[in-house]
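Good day; I would like, with your permission, to put a structural problem before you. The record follows directly beneath this note:
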Amino acid sequence: MTEQITQVSRVRRRPGPDIWSAGALLIAAMVLAPILAVFWIALTPTDNIWPHLVSTTLPRYLINTGFLMVITGSLAAVAGTAAAWMITQYRFPLSRVLEWALLLPLSVPAYVGAYALVDFLEYAGPLQTMLRDLFGWQNAQDYRFPEIRSRGFASIVLAAALYPYVYLLARAAFREGSADTFDVARALGAGPFARFFKIGLPLARPAIAAGTAIVLMETVSDFGTVEFFAVQTLTTGIFSVWLEGYNAGGAAQIASLVLILVLMLVGFEKAGRARLRFFRLSRQSRPIVKTALTGPRGWLACALCAVPFLVGFVLPATVIASHAAHNIEGWADPGLMRALLNSAAVGGTAAFVTVLGALFMVYGVRQTGRRLPRLLLPFTTIGYAAPGAVIGIGILIPLSFLDHGLADAITFMTGTDPGLLLTGSAFAIVLAYVVRFFAIAQGAVDSAMGRVAPSLPLAARSLGRGVGGVLREIYVPLIKGSVGTALLLVFVDCLKELPATLLLRPFNFDTLATRVYDQASLENITDAAPPALMVMAVSLVAVLWLARTNR
């Protein structure tokens, strides 16, 4: 049936240029160009400092990045998988609340969690102050407390912010399991741990691997958290080499290494799932019936599931809200309102352009019979895997050359210097957001269009509607819910994006994320609290919407 529809659409396509195919190619080129630019700049540096990096700082960057990946990935995988198993298999006190509450840490950017944790645990923070008052200690020499600004605490913060990716996918995988399988295992004498390790874990392994891969990619791309904890990673190395060493080629070489590492993660994740196939034995498989846990066991399960929620959401939300409540003047700061308006403007523009481009490209690829757009479509998702710092380099350096050339041309023709039109405005930030989060919009639109019955557009075409008319009158009304969700998710991710915004923002241009970073980097958590709370509040709306759609 699908082949017949494709053939009909090809037959009825009017002669002349294929604007859908050309548009899809143009959008794919826009998304892929920054990634390719990074490799080109890395291969043709004006001053090759790669040997110097290899012999000095690069090993430290690699070791710290590897440490964070291993510890963060392990903590997030264990916390997310264990919580998903408990929520789907057992009924215990507060389990219904925790089922959606475990998603709330997604609304807290990792760098905000880092500021809150350090403020809570530092020497003058409430925890150590309480310990000194309780035990009569006078100063830090009277007791030993772990070093807060370390790789270990950075891993804990990242895992607490990122484990919901594993939890969300693992929960869906456990839900899809059949109660018959677990009943057979129970009848054969398998206890709770045996059922988890021998049945539940193998069945959910693809989902857990996918969630952990996302956690690892986010860990590699993080800048705000590791910079605040003074942990030198590959991403902080990009900033150091470029902004402190004034060497764009060296920064591009480190960025290329980061990109290769991320692509390897994606490849390993897909290869690990390639040979795994699990099928339901019956269409009428029974849903899993939760086992009731009462008494101490029930409260123990509740406590175990609550730990990641408390560390990932309650602690940072409480600390930030406390500082924000004591900073009345900060809410009236004109700079805060400008940052809010800037964030809304660039985030809203980027979300609209991203979703519109994804809608055009996905529909164009579905309509065109040409092979190249179909081959390029999967590659447009690579931007989401690329760290913001990598995309920033791939955009800023080529765009600056284009900007200067454009300014020179306008000056030559008009005699007036227009200044930097592209890099001197928010254009570069919007472009970076579009490239970075195009995969979110593309995935949402593609899956939504795939759920539209093929007979509907075929009927519209038979009634004389053109290709554009079918999009406007059939697809858009049917997929507007998914399009709205994509708009919200892209906007929230734009709001939280820090590395690309730091690299690409024009002079005296702040967003909420950069304002939080600027204040927190000066150890001024009180002034960082209002914008941080705004970011969390907007992100919370998206997370609650996500929890509602994934019940």
Summary: Strands lie at 90-91, 291-292.
